[in-house]
Amino acid sequence: MNRSILTASAVLLLLWGCGTTNSLDDEQPNPPVDVTYEANIQPLMYNYCTTCHGGPVPSAGLRLTTYQEVRNIAEGGQLVQRVNDTTNPMPPSGLLSAQERELITQWVENGFPEN
Ligand code: HEC
């Protein structure tokens, strides 16, 4: 067999291996144990939610710009429900990553730590 074909196969295998590792990481969330609003949840809200759920006229009358606002909707169950809703997800553009959704679930289960 020709040497350059062997080399090309090795490179392809290596690339394939890297891709596989990344997608495995996505499916096995491993969030930090101490999830807090300040460190983890607020950045998610500002990245994905407050363009609609903020400002003077928030979508659905729901503002997600302060700890108390996010905690209120989390206590009602709608936060975890809508970020995991495959037919009507929040954000509407598509589900967050498994890790991001796990952070939110963890935060709620841990009793909404602020900081
Ligand atoms: C592109 C605009 C947009 C973005 C971005 C967005 N939302 Fe929404 N959201 C809406 C609209 C419009 C509604 C009302 C219609 C509906 O419920 O689907 C809504 C409704 C909701 C509701 C239900 C409110 C209720 O009273 O039951 C929750 C909870 C929610 N969004 C959470 C989020 C969260 C959390 C994020 C970020 C991860 C997010 N949304 C991002 C537009 C948006």
Describe this structure in words.
Mean pLDDT is 85; it is low at 19-23. The protein has helices spanning 3-27, 37-48, 67-75, 78-83, 98-109. It has 5 helices and no strands. It has 115 residues and is mostly helical. Helix 2 (37-48) packs across helix 5 (98-109). It folds into 2 domains: 1-30; 32-115, no CATH class. The longest helix has 25 residues, at 3-27. Bound molecules: heme C.
List strands and helices in order, with pairings.
Blueprint: H1 3-27, H2 37-48, H3 67-75, H4 78-83, H5 98-109
Helix pairs in contact: 2-5
The structure holds heme C.
Heme C binds next to helix 4.
What is the 3D shape?
elongated
| Overall mean confidence score, pLDDT | 85
Q: Describe the sheet with the most strands.
A: none
Query: Given the helix and strand composition, which structural class is it?
Result: mainly alpha
State the domain count: 2
Task: Give the ordered list of helices and strands.
Answer: HHHHH
Radius of gyration: 20 Å
Tally of strands: 0
Give the % helix: 55-70%
Small molecules bound? heme C
- Ranges where pLDDT stays below 50 over 5 or more residues in a row are 19-23
**If helices are DSSP runs of H or I spanning 4 or more residues, what is the number of helices?**
5
What share of residues are in beta strands? under 5%
> How far is the first residue's CA from the last residue's CA?
61 Å
Give a short summary of the structure.
56% of the residues lie in helices and 0% in strands. By secondary structure, it is mainly α.
